[in-house]
Amino acid sequence: MKGKISNQFFRNYLIIFCLSILAAVLVYLLSGFTNDIISKTLVKNIYPASLLMKDDYTDIDAEPVVRNGGGIQVINDRYEVVYSKGLDTIGTERLTVSEFTQFLIRSKEKGHQYSYDILYNPQGGFWLIVTFPTSIRLDISFVYNREAVPKDVKNVSLVFAAIIVLYLLMLGLFAVVFSRISSVSITKPLKMLLTGTKRLREGDYSARVNLNLKNEFADLQDTFNDMAQKIETEISLREQAELERKRMIMDISHDLKNPLASVVGYTELCLQKTDESDKSLRDYLKIILKNSRRASDLLNDLFEFAKLESADYSIKLLKTDICEYLRQACGDLLPMLEQAGFDYNFNIPEEAVYVMLDTVQMNRVLYNLTDNLIRYNPEGTSLIVSLYEEHDNAVIIFKDNGIGIPSDIVNNIFKPFVRVDDSRNSQTGGTGLGLSIAYKIIRKHGGNIDIQTDLNQGCTFIITLPKK
């Protein structure tokens, strides 16, 4: 499929991949902005230890801290709790050095349920501890100090870069997998529908599609199957009508042959027995005979044409030396050509060239071409018949220098009843089926017949037959 949908899905998810990275960056920036806004509204930041600190801890105003759910403790240099108001998370009046150290460490831990702001007053010799319960804590921050050890900076940078790369790879992998999964749900039914349409195009009108889906594709499936059903029915009816038409033509042609033969026969008999002095009667009989023969020729051609169109009709192919056959066939055409006053020349190789040939039918082809030549061209016209080999084919050239055929009807010249002279009463008396019959016979041989011509440029018929 051109421009595969799966690739389109991948491009779409690649865009999503890039947008996801952009979103991650924006979230980080937004979290910093949000953290700054939140920090300004938190009670713990409204009442920091630096704002409450006094040199004399008894002067410290603990009331606003306690009112907002917090607490204040003061620890002297001997690690004794000498002052306590409100929330107390220390839970003792005296601490050891080790306990106080552990308390300081824990106060800075993330995830702790309480927020501590601790400040030492060197003049008063005590620590002020302001405690508030932690609401929601979101700690995302990057810190860089130029005085840090270069090795540490390098190691941290490598770890941080590896995390980013891993995140991007995972995000990309998820985008690829999800795009493939998503595309399959669309490309699979489309491929099944495409296969069905190709079968229809190739003439398999029984093609149906079963997607086993319950979405818009199911509606498309039903529409396709209904269309295929209608086409199959229509084609079946058309084929039946065509068979009946061909059968009718064959039956009519067959049934009229005998009456016309009788008319021709009795007319000829009357001409023989009619007195030469009765000129009018003889003229009438000649007209009857001429038109009867013309009608008989038309019926014969119709009968042959209908037979060739029948799917049951087959020609009898035998391995034949086309060169020897063509020499004999051209010899049989000489009386027609000489009687019409035509010049001729035959260029046929001596070496044998074998093809599968029905000689009886091929005689009909050459006769029709010669008859067509004689009917439509003046006396003195030249005919050249030649044969040569081209790859796996034998090519017969049937060329004359006559009046030719107008370019506007060349493309239809092998269709039934197409004639250079549009008048059905032409003095040529052609049936308009000769070239159509020749075309169908050549096609039955697995070959092809083509024409090169123009008005006053003569005609060249090119017959191609596969070699054996």
From TrEMBL:
Residues 184-236 form the HAMP domain. It catalyses: ATP + protein L-histidine = ADP + protein N-phospho-L-histidine. Keywords: ATP-binding, Cell membrane, Kinase, Membrane, Nucleotide-binding, Phosphoprotein, Transferase, Transmembrane, Transmembrane helix, Two-component regulatory system. Gene3D superfamilies: 1.10.287.130, 6.10.340.10, Histidine kinase-like ATPase, C-terminal domain. Residues 251-468 form the Histidine kinase domain. Its EC number is 2.7.13.3. One of its GO terms (molecular function) is phosphorelay sensor kinase activity. The chain crosses the membrane at residues 12-31, 124-144, 156-178. It is a multi-pass membrane protein. It is found in: Cell membrane. One of its GO terms (cellular component) is plasma membrane. Its main location: membrane. Pfam families: HAMP, HATPase_c, HisKA. PANTHER family: SENSOR HISTIDINE KINASE CPXA. This is histidine kinase. It comes from Sedimentibacter hydroxybenzoicus DSM 7310.
